[in-house]
Design a protein that fits this description.
This protein has 561 residues and is an alpha/beta fold. The chain is built from 24 helices and 7 strands. The radius of gyration is 25 Å and the shape is globular.
């Protein structure tokens, strides 16, 4: 075991008791806020609405969002969301936490497998530290709390990559990889392809290509048992792809591959274009709080790059990171599949003897550390500062937010102290506590209380109060967020492109119509209503901010009866 070369590091893998304790800690870090945080626009509620419609229609192949085909992703995530929704709730209730359970479980499983698999290779302290760094990081914390693909996808990536790592290390560990390793690899690829298409193949494929280029040896690939492994992957993923190809007459592949995937590579879709280096610039925050250890691990990784364990982790990180940087469309979570490997390298460096560092590199690290400290202070105090700055709580800060902010600051001080004293176990504990307090403060205490920030829940609640009609059609312009469609129901929500269209829809809805119209659109809405011999009556008003495009909105509710 590689941990034998690290003085003072336990050479045993993590015990069952340690892993169970880690599991509880991961849940404690990642679960708070899963039910109290409203649907986050714009991607999350589209997934949740599509799952709702899938359950209501019984069509588990051809997924829809309102009356449009949902051909951007495979069906795997909708199936996963449907299971807890059907078990613990129903599509009509639209309880957001049931749709988020696959993301939460995926994030927890990814962290747990990272801790367990890394402990088998590097020893218990390193493995548990790597798992904790992954669980506490900002990107995974966000993805665990929203109903999208990336939390669940990471679990399949982690299984595939650590199985691949085990096959690669088989010769150096003198223990050939078993058929279970190959089965885990191919099954994880099949599940990943059902969740987000070729992304998992991109990560594993680039890892293999990088290792082949560096080692110029391919014998270890025999351990993957391609002869029966590839059919296993196809048996998992191919049936749905064949079914959707037939059901859509090939339209799914034209949109998913020809439009969505290729456009992400060549164009900045939905205003998400960014230059090369975007992910690197955001890394200090996206992998926070462990980004300080990741930066410190660079000299270690370079010094030990020829060791097979480190070489594999670098092959996991570098090619995939470059590929995601080359994509014209960029979002912070795109590089999340590389974070388990980064966490392993950071943990290895923390528990290893220090590597000699040149003065100029040490100077760069101190600059990075100063930036990390500034980001840390901002994130620790965000719950106190942001609401007042955005005027979303009337200046009143809940006492719990203040307490959690002070706890986060205390944990930050402990991180700095223990890192300075060279106490790795306590430094990891402090970093985990820092991630916990910051996450609970953000997702469970601060964000759910920003009432002016969440217009869709406010509009939905107001609509129920103002119009008790059971078949009410809510017509909205210019507010078009998918969270409104999810919360109010896809069959009872109409997003009008123009105020004239809203007036026409209200006229057709008759007594069961309720229009919510922005103040800028109101004159045109009134003019069209007059032309239709409609006399809409204002029954309520609502002020807020659409955080998706930072617009302040003054909305008026209209009925005709």
């Amino acid at each position: 075991m590689w941990a034998e070369t690290l003085p003072g590091v336990a050479r045993r893998p993590a015990s069952v008791k340690e892993l169970l304790l880690f599991l509880l800690i991961a849940f404690a870090i990642l679960a708070p806020g899963i039910s109290s945080l409203p649907p986050v626009d714009r991607d999350e509620p589209r997934y949740e609405t599509a799952t709702t419609q899938m359950l209501a229609s019984g069509n588990f192949v051809d997924i829809r969002y309102q009356n449009q085909p949902r051909y951007l992703q495979p069906a795997g995530i909708y199936w996963l969301q449907a299971i807890p929704t059907a078990l613990f709730s129903s599509p009509e209730h639209r309880q957001v936490w049931t749709y988020r359970l696959p993301s939460l479980l995926g994030a927890v499983v990814a962290s747990l497998i990272t801790a367990w698999a890394a402990s088998l290779i590097f020893g218990a302290p390193i493995g548990l530290s790597a798992g904790a760094l992954l669980a506490a990081c900002v990107s995974l914390g966000f993805e665990a709390r929203i109903g999208k693909t990336d939390g669940a996808l990471l679990a399949s990536v982690v299984v595939a990559q650590f199985a691949l790592m085990r096959a690669y290390l088989a010769t150096s560990l003198a223990r050939p990889a078993s058929w279970r390793v190959a089965a885990a690899f191919w099954a994880a690829l099949g599940i990943g392809v059902l969740l987000k298409g070729p992304i998992i193949i991109l990560v594993s494929g680039l890892t293999v290509l990088a290792l082949l280029a560096v080692d110029r040896k391919a014998g270890w690939l025999r351990g993957l048992q391609v002869i029966w492994g590839l059919p296993l992957m196809l048996a998992i993923a191919l049936p749905w792809y064949l079914a959707i190809g037939a059901a859509s007459h090939g339209e799914f592949f034209r949109i998913a591959v020809g439009h969505s995937l290729l456009n992400k590579v060549t164009n900045g879709q939905q205003s998400h274009g960014a230059p090369f280096g975007y992910h690197l610039a955001l890394f200090i925050g996206s992998f926070w709080p462990g980004s300080i250890l990741a930066a410190a691990a660079i000299p270690f990784a370079w010094a030990r790059r020829r060791e097979p364990q480190v070489r594999f982790l670098l092959a996991w990180i570098i090619p995939s990171w470059i590929a995601f940087e080359l994509f014209k469309t960029k979002l912070p979570h795109y590089v999340l599949p590389t974070f388990p490997a980064i966490a392993c390298l950071a943990a290895c460096a923390l528990w290893s003897p220090k590597v000699a560092v040149k003065p100029w590199l040490k100077g760069l690290f101190f600059v990075f550390a100063a930036l990390w400290l500034a980001v840390s202070l901002a994130l620790c105090c965000a719950g106190v500062i942001a609401p007042a700055a955005l005027h979303l709580q009337g200046g009143a800060i809940p006492p719990l937010v203040i307490v959690l902010s002070l706890c986060a600051l205390a944990a930050l001080g402990a991180v700095v102290w223990y890192l300075g004293k060279g106490r790795p176990a306590r430094a990891i504990a402090a970093l985990t506590a820092l991630g916990f307090f910051a996450g609970v403060n953000a997702y469970a205490a601060t964000l759910p209380g920003l009432y002016g920030f969440w217009l869709s829940p406010a509009i939905t609640q107001a609509a129920k109060r103002l119009d008790p009609c059971p078949n009410r059609l809510l017509i909205s312009t210019p507010y078009h967020e998918p969270s409104l469609v999810f919360l109010n129901g896809p069959n009872h929500t109409y997003l009008a492109d123009t105020p004239q269209e809203a007036a026409d829809a209200l006229a057709k809805a008759d007594a069961c119509g309720l229009a919510v119209v922005g103040d800028k659109e109101d004159p045109a809405f009134q003019a069209e209503a007059k032309a239709l011999n409609l006399a809409p009556r204002a029954v309520g008003m609502l002020n807020g901010r659409d955080y998706s495009d930072n617009r302040k909105l003054k909305l008026t509710f209209y009925r005709t009866n």
